[in-house]
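User: quick one, fold this
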Amino acid sequence: MALRLGRKPAHLQRYCYDPANAEAYFAYPLLRLDSIEVPPQYRQYLRGKQARPGERLPLGAISMPQQPPVKALALFIKQVRTDAQNLKWVGQQDLPGLAQALRLNPWPNDHGVAIKVSYDLNGQSIEEAFFGVYYYSQGGNEAESVGQLHMAANTIKQTNWGFRALQSFRAPAGTLDNRMPFFCLIAKSLTYNPPWQQLATRIHDQMVAAFNQKLQQGYEQLRARQAAMAQMQAQEREFNKSIDAFDQNLRSSNFDDSWLRDATGGGGASGRPTRSSFDHADDLIRGVDTLNDPSTGGTIQLTNLGQYHFTDGFGNYRSTDDPNYTPEKAGEVGTWTQMTEVQ
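Assistant:
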């Protein structure tokens, strides 16, 4: 049974016990867990505080990476029996028909499991059998292209998973198996009314809707970032055009600048003409670096406000003063090559 107080869910645990001995029946709340898988190359776009494993999310689910059914149930047992002394694993069993036996509505990938443990309670040896219907459902993003960023379908995944009908039967060691029919009668006597089942479905749908909303917000942020980057690249191209025009006008004028050139000229080891010290001074005055462009086999001039220059071979360039920077580390798409200065 679960109640909602304001915006926060309140869970009630049901149990009954025999005061004369250690026999007890426990029914636990719906265990709803959630995980979102984001590949490393897209984590730079995450905004806000991200939930850590074990933290409760706004809709009541607990943030936790998906675990296999038996391992997940074993983790649950350790959480609810933290005070058990000499806790030991006795055995496990798959129960594929458990959801149907408990008259539960089908949920995605239903799978019943059971684990039996033993431990000491108040100096007495105890056996306890835990049962639960494991479930999980997965969703992901649709294929999306934002500028130069292309994201395949299901690159980002959300997994809603957990346990329904979690319950356990406890009895003194050696008597649990004989008392199992009695405990099963208690378990089958529990029924869930339609409003509760409808509420659980609505919460699941809200979790899926929240995931899709976050995806859409991420796409909008990516589009804004791509637009700003495109504007910066356009401004850089216009700057380069103005520098080239100024240089062309200077060279085509009647001004005799032969005295600015080295008399010897010559060529480098590769056979390419070398640049004089006056060429480098000319670059410095105009605020540019003359670089070898591997995409064209020629040269290009970029602003010298950055010491390191990169190209992706498709007419896109990046400049920076950070020696540890690469466009790939900054989330740029493509293969980038660091450019060398013409000597």
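User: anything notable?
Assistant: The chain has two domains: 2-141+151-209, 272-343.
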